[in-house]
Structure formats: C-alpha cells, structure tokens
Design goal:
The complex is a heterodimer of chains A (about 325) and B (about 375). Chain A is mainly alpha-helical and about 325 residues long. Chain A contains nine helices and nine strands. Chain B is globular. The chains are: A mainly alpha (about 325), B alpha+beta (about 375).
Chain lengths: ~325, ~375
C-alpha cells in the first residue's frame, strides 16, 4: 500500500493546482460578484488545453489516477469546467481524445436534461445495451437554466443515432465505471470546496459575540462533513487506481448519499449570505444539487453493488 | 499510489488463517457472542496466544530487539483485521501489541522493556486499561485516583470504572495522579493485577455481561519501577499513544464480514431482492470501505514514520459510522437473530458496534479533534 502520489504524479498535481489557483477570479461588477448560477472557466480551460492536460490519461505511464487528479483539483474551483468526460471517461473508454466539452448521459435523460450538453461537442450515450458516440454538430439543444451550476441542455425532439459510432455492449459497463468514477470525483471536489469555504466563513463570522465556528453544534457537523469528503475522495482514488467496477460504484454511491447532509450544513452555516448569488457558496452547492441525481441517483449504483459485491454464489464468511 | 497488499503481507495473513483455523467449532455460538472479555474467551486466549507466539505472529511489526521481526506497520493492521473481525480471539493481548507495548518502547526503562515487551511478544500478558473513573470518562483530565510517593514506592488509592477485561487481566496500564490538578499531574503506571489492595467488581453491560468492571485501589503499593516515564508526563504518554489506540482495532473488517453474513441470510430468506434492502446494504458497504481506506491512510503514515495527524480522528469517526451502519441492518432486517443463541456472528458485531462510539474516545471527542486539528476551528468560550 502507498497512499502517496509518485513524484511524477505529485508534480502533475502541483502543476494543476498552480494553474487552477491562477484562475480563481470571479467576474465582478464593481466590488460585487456577478450574480449568476455559475461562472464558466474559459480561460482556465484554454490553459489546460494548451498544456495537454485533457490528454493526460493517454500519456505513457499515465492513466486514470492522473486524470482523476485533474478532475478533482479543477473541481475545487468556483469556476465550472468540464473535465471528467474529456480527461477521464472518453480517453479511457475509447483510447483517444474526442472533441470537447463532452457530455455523458443515459438515453432517457437526453430529453430531460444533461450536464454540459448546452456546450458539448460530443455526447457519450448509454443506450443500456450499447454506447453511442454522438457528434453534437447539428443536433438542436435547448439550454436549461435554473438552480444548477452547470451548462445544462436537453435535446430538442428525437435524437438521431443512425450515424453515431457504437462501442458495443461490453463497453456499457466500462462507460458506467468511468462515469461513476468521474461523478464521485466531481462530488468529492464540490463537497470539499463547499466545506472549506464554509469553514473559512465560520472562522470569522461572529454571532452572539463569538465566531460561528466556535459553537460545538456547528463544529461537529462540519467535522462529520469533512470526514465524508475524505471518505469519498479516497474511495474515488482507489477506484481510479484499481479500475474495478465495484470500487467505482461504491465511490459514486457514497458520494451521492453524502450530498444531502453536506449541502444542508454548508447552507445553514452560511446563513442568509449563503442564499445570495453574490456569495460563492452556491457555485459548489448548485453543482451538488445536480450531481445527486446524475445516473439515476444512488439507487442505480446500489443495484450494481449488490450484484458485484454479493453475487449469487454463496460466500463463506467469518 | 498503490492500494494492494504485497506478497509478504499476503503470506502473513495466510499464516494467521492457519492459526485461526484451530479455533473451536462452536466459536461463533459459544465464544465470540459474549465479547473478547468473556471468561471463556479470555481463558481460551491464553492457549491461542501461545500458538500465535510459537509462530512469531504476534508483533511482527515490532523491532527484532523487542521480540518482533522489523516488519512494517501494515502487519499490525493485518493481524488486527483478522482477529477483530472474528471477535478478537487474542482477547486483551491486543492492548499490549497495539499501544501499551509502543508506549513502553518509547517511554519505558530498559528493565520495563525487557520485562514487558518480550512477554507481549510471547503472548503471555492480557492487559486492561485503567483510564476512566466515575467522574472522568471522556474528561480524563478530571481523574482523581492518586499515587502518593512513599520511599521507593507509590501508594495507589481511588477507583477506575468501565474497565474492560479487569477480572482476568494480568496487568493494567494505569493513569494516576501524583501531582496536582489538571493534565500535568497525571502519571502512568504498569500495575500487576495481583497487587494487594486491588479489588474488582463486575458491572453487567448492555453489550456484554462480562466486559465492564469497577477497580478499587485501597492503598495498593507499587514499586517505583512501576512508573512509566517520569512523574507528571502521563498526559504526554497518552497523547503519544492515542493514535495507536484509536486506530488499532480493525472494526471496519468486522463490520465488512458481518455485512457479508447479513446479506447471506437475507438471500436465504428471499429478502435481498428488495431494492431498499439492497440500497441499505450497499450504503453500509460503502461506509465500511471509506473507513477502511481512511484507516489505511493512517497506517501508511505510520509505516513511513510520519508524525500522526488529524487523519486518525477522521478514520476513527468513519469506523464508528461503518460499525453502526452494519449493526443497524441487523436490527432493521434480522431482529429475530439478535436474541440469545440465535446467531453468534450477528450478535458479536451488533454488540461490538454499540461500543464503537464510546470506547477509545467518544465519537464527539473525535469530532472535537477534527474541528480543532483538521478544520482549525476556534475553541468555544
């Protein structure tokens, strides 16, 4: 066992952190952050593209762990960018880079709403018995707005899949494994960022003459939330390392189940300020709202976990 | 990054399995359900520990000079997983291997090291822990038991409570007050339990009839050589070993095996197809694996000689959640199997989970530590 990155992985992670840190500025009007549900990270994306970071999984000696590092570290940013599909799912599923941004969806969700579909150039589509690679050029997409911090979109009318290349039935489980991993990393990062932001806020925000964060009722809930963040992170990193479908499903399930409490606590502790779009908290919690239901929510992972962890062959225990 | 066991670690686990295969056939029905402090299990532990010692399996992770094999800290967590998960057949020998031994290694005199470390490695000592008192459970700094210097001796007076293993233990790791109030007055002693002046009263517990005791010290005289470290540095010793104590027992592995057992029964009963049941079991497994990884993170640091940090408290809190997640499945879906004589495996996990959030520092203490040391939140007024 070794929980440390290799020197090369650490150098990569440090580089990503530096680049992300250089692009944290939120657009402002005067001193006030522009009140939007989310702020796209176009400049950060451009730097990462130029640096070849979205192709990291295909570099010799690299793979899912390196891509996971990019998804997680960039997911901590208050600015939104699509990394999971581009850097992790697509390259490891197809062995090549695809035009990005990349959206991933189940067929039944394309007419309801899909993360990043409003801007996507490629859609990875789970058809249940096959995977389709859909070129989004020429497909009509309606942008969805609301209480989510992503460029959401839905396909207008029926999606024509006749020209879309298929990867075959065996790749369905691989798509789901990688999607779950990517989802868990997105959630781990957004939860961690929300908890860190909230922790910083309650350190100085005074109530009844003392910092909000000095009250044990607040401390214990934030501490429990911090544990959840770390639990999800390590489950996801192990899943990235192992390439195991059960590990990925466990990470995604643990992540989606954690969202309710973490989201609630962070908003409670940011009080009325956290209810404004001028305050940054929603930039992560609005992501979490969407991520909680992606792929059909944790019940879908539970069904697969049951099949993978406890197959019908009797196991000897104890 | 690497999340797999190496060959030596796998081989060690296999050796442990060979010894575990010698446990009595009625282990789950007669021994394990009553806990590692039950008289029957403790008596059996002396034979079992001798067998482990014969194969040099007890403290592989210790330095060779103290009876170990200079193996990594990973071997400590492997034996812990294998033993704790089936009800800890070593009984309280594990207190010695996990943290009392390391405390003696770090703070003990040469005489104490020779006397106790080799005995632990030989599987000869069953320990108990004299920390909690009637008015000092979580608030250990409030303890009142005194150790008065008297020539070359200390006279111990006071009492300890909720002391596991005391009735059959050979030795106690005792905290007593030599100096004044507060944490600075606390000292550590190693106390043979046959010392005159020690009286033990059993207390029936909700998790076991045999675990808890009250231990009374009525002018029990200890030689000066019983003092571990220096007078007044007991709190420092506790702080040094606390990471070993909190991350020592492989509770997540016991929960994992309990969960596998629960699923097996639910399948036999035709109840595992229910999506709610499956979701609950899957969620429990995720909690178990999250606890396992956070524990391994602590062990990874230990194996690399890093100073222990707040990860210990995160891991311990995760372990508590995992233990309860599995125990809750038993009471929700298999309540009939928690009665006496029904299913010893389920009962052992269920009973053990009750203690998870209290023993080795209450869950709320872990949260306090995470708040202060990991999140850096300010103390309350």
């Amino acid at each position: 066992m070794n929980f440390d990155f290799s020197p090369e992985q650490q150098a990569l992670c440090d580089a990503i952190q530096r680049i992300v840190a250089d692009h944290l500025e939120l657009p402002r009007t005067g001193n006030v952050v522009e009140p939007r549900a989310y702020h796209p990270a176009h400049a950060l994306e451009a730097v990462l593209e130029r640096g070849g970071f979205f192709d990291i999984a295909l570099e010799p000696g690299c793979g899912a762990v390196e891509a996971a590092s990019l998804v997680y570290e960039s997911g901590l940013s208050p600015l939104v960018l699509e990394t999971g599909g581009s850097a992790l799912v697509a390259p490891l599923l197809t062995g090549k880079s695809l035009p990005r941004p990349i959206a991933i969806a189940r067929l039944q969700d394309v007419s309801r709403g899909v993360r990043f579909l409003a801007e996507a150039k490629t859609l990875l589509l789970d058809l249940d018995d096959d995977v389709a690679l859909v070129d989004m050029e020429g497909i009509a997409v309606e942008t969805l707005t609301g209480a989510y911090a992503y460029p959401l979109g839905k396909v207008v009318g029926q999606i024509d899949l006749t020209a879309a290349p298929r990867l075959g039935q065996p790749q369905v489980s691989e798509l789901r494994r990688l999607w779950r991993l990517s989802l868990a990393l997105d959630i781990a990062a957004a939860m961690q960022a929300a908890v860190s932001f909230t922790t910083e806020y309650v350190r100085y925000r005074q109530v009844f003459g003392r910092p909000v964060g000095s009250f044990q009722a607040v401390q214990h809930r934030l501490a429990a939330d911090a544990e959840q963040c770390r639990g999800v992170y390590w489950l996801a990193m192990k899943a990235a390392w192992s390439g195991n479908a059960l590990d990925a499903a466990l990470a995604a399930l643990h992540a989606q189940r954690a969202i309710t409490q973490v989201n609630y606590d962070c908003h409670q502790f940011n009080g009325a300020l956290g209810m404004t779009l001028e305050h940054a908290l929603h930039l992560w919690t609005f992501r979490l709202r969407w991520l909680a239901g992606e792929m059909g929510g944790y019940r879908t992972h539970a069904a697969d976990i049951a099949a993978l962890a406890w197959p019908d062959t009797p196991r000897k225990t104890g | 990054m690497e999340f797999a066991w190496n060959e030596a670690e796998e081989a060690y686990r296999a050796e442990l399995h060979e010894v575990l295969a010698t446990l009595p056939d009625d282990w789950w029905s007669s021994y394990a359900p009553h806990g590692p402090s039950s008289p029957k299990l403790m008596d059996h532990a002396r034979r079992f520990n001798a067998e482990l010692a014969k194969r040099d399996l007890i403290v592989r992770h210790w330095p060779a000079e103290y009876g170990g094999c200079d193996a990594s800290a990973w071997q400590q967590i492997i034996i812990s997983e294998e033993m704790w998960s089936i009800g800890e057949p070593r009984s309280s020998l594990y207190l010695g291997t996990n943290w009392a031994g390391p405390a003696i290694m770090k703070f003990g005199t040469e005489g104490q090291k020779q006397r106790y470390l080799n005995a632990i490695a030989a599987g000869e000592l069953l320990w108990c822990q004299g920390f909690s008192e009637p008015e000092a459970g979580t608030d250990l700094g409030n303890m009142k038991t005194r150790a008065e210097p008297d020539g070359d001796s200390y006279i111990i007076s006071g009492s300890k409570i909720w002391t596991s293993y005391a009735a059959r233990a050979d030795i106690m790791f005792l905290l007593a007050r030599v100096g004044g109030k507060g944490k600075g007055g606390v000292s550590c002693f190693i106390v043979p339990m046959d010392t005159p002046g020690i009286e033990i009263r059993p207390i029936a517990g909700v998790h076991s009839q045999h675990d808890f005791h009250e231990v009374f010290f009525s002018d029990a005289r200890l030689p000066a050589s019983a003092l571990l470290g220096e007078e007044g540095n007991g709190w420092q010793i506790v702080q040094a070993i606390i990471h070993y104590e909190r991350i020592g027992a492989g509770r997540y592995e016991k929960a994992a095996r309990g969960l596998a057992h629960i699923v097996e029964i639910l399948k036999e009963r035709g109840e595992f197809d229910d999506p709610v049941v499956r979701a609950d079991c899957a969620a429990a497994l995720a909690a178990v694996e999250a606890a396992r990884l956070q524990t391994y993170l602590v062990i990874d640091g230990r194996a690399k000689d890093k100073d222990p940090g707040a990860e210990t408290y995160l891991a311990r809190y995760a372990m508590i959640q995992a233990d309860h997640a599995v125990a809750n499945l038993s009471s929700a879906y298999l309540p009939d199997l928690l009665v006496d004589g029904a299913d010893g495996h389920l009962r052992a996990q269920f009973n053990s989970a009750i203690t998870a959030g209290i023993a080795a520092g209450a869950a709320e203490v872990q949260l306090n530590m995470i708040s202060g040391r990991y999140l850096g939140l300010p103390r309350g007024s």
